[in-house]
Amino acid sequence: MSATQLYFDHCASTPPHPDVIRTVAEVMGQVYANPSSIHGAGGQAEQLIRRSREVVARALEVEPEDILLTSGATESNNIAIFGIAKAYQAAGKPIHMIVSEVEHASVYKCVQQLEQEGIEVTYLPVDENGRVRPDEVEAAIRPHTVLVSIMHVNNEMGAIQPIGEIGDMLRRYPKVTFHVDGVQGLGKVPVRLAEWGIDLYSLSGHKIQGPRGAGVLVKRKQVALKPLMYGGSQEGELRPGTENVPCIVGLAKAVRLAVEGQSERYDKLVRLRQFVLEHLSQMKPLVVNSPAVPYGAPHIINVSYPGMKSEVVVHALEQRGIIVSTQSACSSKLHKPSRVLLAMTHDSQVAASGIRISLDANCSEDELKRLVQSFKQMTEQLQSLVQR
Ligand code: PMP
């Protein structure tokens, strides 16, 4: 990124926190022994992992034994979903899973793959605010439903799903495991794992100013998963392989900072989002897709220019020094209309022209003014093209 560019793609990845960079560098330089080695240096590395696990557990109000360290949320989601499927497949039982139509690819493609292997999957629609309805989740439950997987905050249009209500309802179905992809919610909106009855919860370091290549799957004791990989005995044999100690320590710091600052960050982001929306909502033909607070997350603004391709708008903004994105970073190179916006709006023109602006709580007023100004100039330019 050049110094003159302004970055509004925090949902795709965040700049690491300076304390995280310092910690990762220090640990990388000093603690390089293998945590599984029986000598003192190995023990020191192991102790750092143990402490990091405790920090993450405390921040999320779960037990340290519930924390499974992974390489990121894609891996956490895969371990959760395939892990459950394999556990039931091993028992030779029929399997049904429920997900929403707006899940991230790292959940959606897992269940699509399982469907090809004969597992039944229900894809729940979302309402005009991009949210699933808890009563529809309940209506979809079958005698052989083993998993409900619903994300907390949608990474494209920002809908906050009614996780607490779904979790409450699922208490009446103790055989159903509840998985939540919490990547975009952590540090932005409140999360209550125990209160909401969440059994499995995925998070990712690089979305919360932590290091890339580090994530967590929270797995409550009652959940039995089969491993997807085989090797050493690390992470209860569910995630074998030598641990990435520097990034684990950096991740723990990032999780703690994310949770500690959540409420203040939320208030700041709501104000910033409001400022941007007040201006963008005046700029016809631009339409705002993200649901309003309290149904929409405070850091995500999704808009469309129906009739225009998202990539064209994103590149035009980049020429003005404004970095935004089309759909999720993981799907943006597909150049297809957004599956998520289509599920929410049922409008293919809107779905083909979605643009995501994702904010950081430290964005300054001047930066937001430049963002708004660039959108204004571009809208005027697009309008003059249409009128010609
Ligand atoms: N889930 C959601 C909601 C996401 O936004 C992302 C990142 N785009 C992921 C999962 C995957 O996370 P990671 O990059 O850590 O694999």
Give structural attributes.
388 residues; 12 helices; globular; binds 4'-deoxy-4'-aminopyridoxal-5'-phosphate; iron
Question: In a nutshell, what does this entry contain?
Answer:
Helix 5 (134-140) packs parallel to helix 6 (163-170) and helix 8 (262-280) packs parallel to helix 12 (365-387). The chain is α/β, with parallel strands linked by helices and 388 residues long. It contains twelve helices and twelve strands.
- Derived from helix and strand composition plus strand pairing, the structural class reads alpha/beta
What string, H for helix and E for strand, traces the elements in order? EHHEHEHEHEHEEEHHEEHEHHEH
Give the rounded overall mean pLDDT.
95
Ligand inventory = 4'-deoxy-4'-aminopyridoxal-5'-phosphate
Low-confidence stretches: none
Helix % is: 40-55%
- Total strands: 12
**Major sheet: order of its strands?**
2-8-7-6-5-3-4
Question: How many strands, what sense, and barrel or not for the largest sheet?
Answer: 7 strands, mixed
| Beta-strand content | 5-15%
Keywords: Cell membrane, Coiled coil, Iron, Iron-sulfur, Membrane, Metal-binding, Pyridoxal phosphate
Protein name: Cysteine desulfurase
Pfam families: Aminotran_5
Domain HAMP: 364-387
